[in-house]
Amino acid sequence: MSSSLASLLPGQDATIVAVQADEALHHRLTAMGFRAGKPVKLMRRGAFFGPLHVRVGSTDVIIRRTDAIHIKIAPAA
Amino acid sequence: MKRIALLGMPNTGKSTLFNRLSGASARVGNWPGVTVDLFTAKIIVGGDMVELVDLPGIYDLHGYADDEKLVRHFLEAQQLDLLAVLVNAAQLDRQLVLPLQLKQLGFPIVLLVNMIDEAKKLGIAIDAPSLAAGMGARVVKVSAKYGDGHKDMMLALAQALTAPEANVEKAPQRLAEDDVVERQAADLMRSSVHVPARLPAQFSDQLDRVLMNQWLGLPLFFLAMYGVFSGVFTLGAPLQGWLGDAFGLVKMGVLEPLLSGAPPLVYGLLVEGIFDGVATVASFVPLIVLFFFFMAIVEDSGYLSRAAYLMDALMARMGLDGRSFVMLLMGFGCNVPALMGTRVMRSRPLRLLSMLVIPFSLCSARLQVFLFIIAALFTARQAPLVLTSLYIMSFVIAFLTALLFKGKRQFRSEEPFVIELPPYRLPTLRQVWVRGWLEARHFLVRASKIIVAGVVLVWLLTHLPAGVAPAGPDSYAGLIGRFMQPILGPLGIDEKLTIALIFGFVAKEIVIGALVVIYGLEGDALTQHIGHSMSWIQGYSFMLFTLIYTPCLSTIATLRSESKSLRFTMFALAWPLFLAWLVSFAFYQVASRLVTL
Questions:
Q1: What's the total number of domains in chain A?
Q2: What is the mean pLDDT of chain B?
Q3: Complex ipTM over 0.85
Q4: Are B420 and A35 an interchain contact pair (Cβ–Cβ within 8 Å)?
Q5: pTM, 2 dp
Q6: Which of B194, B210, B232 is the last residue of a domain?
Q7: Which residues contact B197 (CB under 8 A, 6 or more apart)?
Q8: If DSSP codes are grouped into helix, strand and coil, which group holds residue A44?
């Protein structure tokens, strides 16, 4: 099982391997810049299981953990 | 007339560019996806009058959100001569796909690479001629905010209108597979854009370390909001006073001499009805305009996205999300713009649930009523505590309502919460001015119609049938008050207060004025009279009812126009009425018994 964006620790870098979401969410994530091969960095996590602050390419995005599990990642090379 | 449509992803500065091109017409917001209604403007391009249409920001040509469907429909159905496609220069890596898709569909496009000022600071270099060659379209680097590249842009638009590129295929192609376009975009990035390997440390990052901090973030946010509200009231109160004085002068110096010969009923309706009513409400305009200026600064700065991040965890448990919270907060100023702000939500159930709870926000008009009643019934030491308790109630009621209804089919949303976090930006004075002025103008247009009608109705109710004492027991208002007694009596609300509540239905701003008319007393005399004639339990029950029950007519009109559903509007009207009764009833009955024990 590959790990997802939601499992990253603050400050960690990774590379996106796949986006496994239904079509609507997939479109939205793709447009935000979540694409296979793109580098991502977890900036911080919200208190009380709040959303994640993620930097993907040159865009900063806030994403809930429940949505972030659809983004599969591999540790940065 | 030729037609140009402006298109781009959210947060590319599209509205700012539209405002710059058109003078001032569209809303600007550093908040993804603000424009929902289509704004159009007539502008001069290359000596000819051209219609410019501002399309909502979209992420994707084949997305499912309402605004994406709208744009697709617009592109299919409308005659277009040119698409001006706006992209954020700092985010070309993911934004080039959109213009490439449009190009492939056969649209003549001009690519406007906006926010070139921010890209420069990040060390991003863009080779416009190379990009133009690769795209097969004219490419101009601009800064909509500061006006850089404006001349080049106008020239490119004019040229594209008169001499379309030769290689534009007239027959729209089928949209190729996504990965083809993506490969094309990646190639263009490699050939025409240089992004430094390490982006320079940004001021935004340092600021976020503090403002989005796990522990400091929320307290700082509440402090900032407190700053906004106290700023609005500190600056607004004197303006409000001057405006009130000016209206007084007009009444004494112009209206009274002019209408002194008119029949009493006509004089009463025109002066004591319409003029006094409208003047009372108009005296709040400075507060509202200031509030919009402050909110424009907060909104354009990018801070609201941070607030949404900070509060999302809590809001998620109530079936809402971080954006709903931001709108609840904006509701503290006025519920109407807060309701309109829910347009950024893509899922209708989420939007409706947010719209259901926003009217519980203790708006500035209700605040005025509370300040008055609290001053009459409580000591100076108790006053801040009483007011704070009402603010807390406002949140409790909103959250309770969301919790109760989040499971219902029409409010249950599975909308993902994925929003862009724009860098902090300092809005220009021009942006703040245009934005604040537009909002204030909308408010005035909307409010003036409804308030004049409401004031006339209320005046007639208190003065008819002819010959009765104003708001006396035999007037229609008195009859209604007596009729309502079986319902409102158990809440400690007597006939006279009932009439005030009916006034408050029109606009909470009128409640104090209503009490003036009903009791026939003004200023300190009224405060003292209320202090003697009402118990604190009655007063608090009255305030609870005022806080929760049906918001003003403007809010109802906005609920109707934004939801486009009469059923939802009726529900959003009935539920608060019921809840207000229940809460006030429980409070009054329990508190009265506890006191007599």
A1: 1
A2: 84
A3: yes
A4: no
A5: 0.80
A6: B194
A7: none
A8: strand
